[in-house]
Amino acid sequence: MIKIAVIGTRGFPGIQGGVEKHCEHIYPHMKDVEVVLYRRKPYLTEASDASFEGISYVDLPSTRIKGFEAVWHSFLCVCHCILHRPDVVHIHNIGPAMFAPLLRLCGLKVVLTYHSPNYEHKKWGLFARTLLKMSERLALRFSNHIIFVNKFQREKFPESVHAKSSYIPNGIPSATRSHHTNFLEAHGILPGEYLLGVGRLTPEKGFEYLVEAVQQISEIKHVVIAGASDHNSSYLQLLQSLDVNKKVVFTGFTSGEDLRQLYSHARLYVLSSVNEGFPLVLLEAMAYGLPLAVSDIPATHLVQLPAEAYFQKANADALAKCVAREWNKKHDTTTYDLSEFDWNAITRKTQSVILSVAKKK
Question: What is the pTM (predicted TM-score) of this model?
Fold first, then answer.
C-alpha cells in the first residue's frame, strides 16, 4: 500500500482555510492508500478529533507568528518524513515547498499542489515575498509533479513546467439547503435580507471594499461576513471602523449547519477578493444557487458567469454599483453547471498523479 505524507495544511477537520477544505475533501476519499497528515497543534479544536479510515495524524508544534508559522512547521514535517520514508510527500502551496530540494536529496518523491502565488498577498512584506518567490522556483524545479488548481496560473510558466504538471481544479460537494434559521436569529439576521461574504479575515479577501461599498446602499441593512482572523485582530478592527452605519455582522469562523443556514438564506453572495488561487467559497455559493457579484480576477473566470456579475477588483464604487444592481433583481435561485468540479473525479485524478509518481523509478 502506498504511503502519502501531507505537508502544508494546518490540518482538518474543523480548521478554517481553503487549503484545509481542499484536503478534507480529497484524502478521506482516496482508496487503497495510507495517508499521514501533518497538522499544526495550535489550530486543533474538538472537531479535529474526528477520524477517517486510512488517515493518521501527526500533530507537531507550531506558532501563530505570521511568516514563521508555515516555515517552522514544514521543517519539522520534513524531518519527520526523512526519518519515516513515505512513498510520496504531497506538499500544498509554494511556501512549505521550499524544502522540496531537501526531500529529493534524501531520496523522497514530491508532488506539489500549487494553490496560489502567495507572494502577491498584501499581508507579506518585502522579505517574505522574496522568500516565497525563491520557494516557488525551488518547488517548480524539484517537485516530481505539480498540480495547479488554477489553469491560468499554470499558463504563466514555461514548457519545462507544463511537461511535469497537471490542471486539477478545486471541487464542490452537493449542497442541501437548510430550512432552519436559528443561527440567523441568534445574530439578528433576517432570512433573504442579507448579503453574504465568506473567508478568512485577511487583506487579500478585500473585505474592506465590501464594507465600504455597502455603506453607500441604503436598501441593504445587513451584511454577514463569516470568517476569522489568521493571526491578529488589526484587519477586523479596520473593517469595524469602516462600518460607519453598523450594517456588518461578523460571525467568526462558521462551519457545518451554521454555514449551511447562511448560504441557504442569503439574498446575494459577494466575493470581493483581490487575489485568489481558486476560491472554494465561490463554488459553495454556486452550489446553493445564490446570485453572485464577484471581483474581476483570473480565478473567478475559472467558472462561467455572466459579464454583469463582475466588478473591478479593489474598487469600492464599482463593487457598490454591481451589488446594487444584483440586489434589486428578482431573486430566484440559479442552477450553475458545476460538473467540472466534482470532488470524486478530482480525488481520482489527484490519486492517479500521486500513484504514478510513486511508481516511477
Answer: 0.84
